[in-house]
Specification:
alpha+beta, Nucleotidyltransferase, domain 5, six-stranded mixed beta sheet, 19 strands, about 35% helix, about 30% strand, flat
């Protein structure tokens, strides 16, 4: 006989959310990915100081850096945690309502991936945001574990697996065995810091001011961790700091690698710190099975080879690395009874 909770679950469109600093991915149980959009909210402020939502997600991101004074394009998540509680709640509400569409009278159960090491206050804020946005029940799962599950690693076996999830705000590194995180480390160095490194490099070397969207485009198009076979060059437009006039420079693959060098060294140092304290038996498994890269940062050209050469370990990029955390949270949702010990309520 079905329990009351399971009976309710039959009539609920339960949801898994990767609430990322850069992007939010939403998976609906039994349906797959329903939303994959930037974590951005555009609001218009009236004379009374009240905010009216103009756009959320992709449409809002198009407004970043291009809005008049009374319109703000806000990224409510910073470094993997909530920086603006009100905007995060409204963003989650928008995504939940978009996928749920009140198809049933039962509010959805929600699993949210969160960075390892978030504080109790941050956990509470994420949970309250989801509850306020319409969730019936909220489970939080640590992102290194979610990424490992989403990457297809054998997390329930007595075998060590190491995952490096490089998102927008944080890099999550975890050694997984027997359904738990044996060792985990989270650093607030990831995609956003890579973008900022490019902005600062161009500012210092070329006296040119560029915005976040331009830096991200450079990173995606010619960003690299080791020298590519062919040098690439793109034209970068911005404002000259000296003349104040608009200017264009040629920016090369070598420039991009030099700009990103320091930030990538920080990620490498965090990975080495985890390896140094990994128990010998699990270390042996990792030597055999290698390191799995997930998150948007895994797509940086040559990053797998860069980390492999520095650690003397095989390094692989997960299939669909951008979706690893969301897919892992989705699997927990599918097997909520079997994997409930992986999620913890805040």
């Amino acid at each position: 006989m079905l329990s009351f909770d399971k009976l309710i679950g039959l009539f609920s469109s339960d949801i898994a959310i990767d609430l990322g600093t850069a992007n939010t991915v939403v998976i609906v149980r039994g349906q797959g990915i329903a939303i994959n959009e930037p974590s951005v909210v555009a609001v218009q402020r009236d004379a009374m100081g009240r905010n009216r939502i103009l756009a959320v997600g992709r449409e809002a991101k198009e407004m970043v850096g291009k809005t008049p004074g009374n319109i703000l394009a806000i990224r409510p998540m910073k470094d993997g945690v909530i920086a603006d509680f009100e905007m995060t709640e409204r963003m989650i509400r928008y995504f939940i309502e978009k996928v749920h569409r009140r198809k049933t009278f039962v509010r959805p159960r929600v699993v949210v991936g969160v960075p390892y090491g978030v504080t109790q206050v941050e956990r509470k804020a994420i949970k309250e945001s989801a509850i306020s946005a319409g969730a019936r029940e909220v489970f939080l799962i640590e992102e290194p574990m979610a990424a490992a599950i989403g990457a297809g690693l054998p997390v329930k076996e007595p075998r060590g697996s190491l995952v490096v999830d490089i998102g927008g705000g944080t890099t999550e590194i975890g050694v997984v065995s027997l359904g738990g995180l044996v060792i985990s480390k989270s650093i607030r160095v990831a995609g956003d810091k890579l973008d900022m490194a490019i902005i600062n490099y161009i500012k210092l070397k070329h006296n040119l001011l560029i915005g976040e969207r331009v830096a991200e485009e450079i990173k995606i198009k010619i960003g690299n961790a080791i020298a590519p076979r062919e040098q690439q060059t793109i034209a970068v437009k911005g404002r000259d700091q000296i003349t104040g006039l608009l200017a264009t420079i040629d920016f090369t693959s070598d420039d991009a690698r030099e700009a990103l060098k320091g930030t990538l060294e920080d990620i490498l140092a965090a990975l080495k710190a985890v390896l140094e304290v990994t128990p010998p038996d699990l270390a042996g498994d990792i030597v055999e099975n290698g390191v799995i890269l997930a998150g948007g940062g895994a797509l940086l050209d040559g990053l797998d080879k860069y980390l492999s050469e520095a650690t003397h370990l095989p390094v692989y990029v997960a299939e669909e690395p951008l979706l690893a955390v969301a897919k892992g949270a989705g699997r927990v949702l599918e097997e909520i009874d079997l994997l409930q010990h992986l999620a913890y309520e805040s």
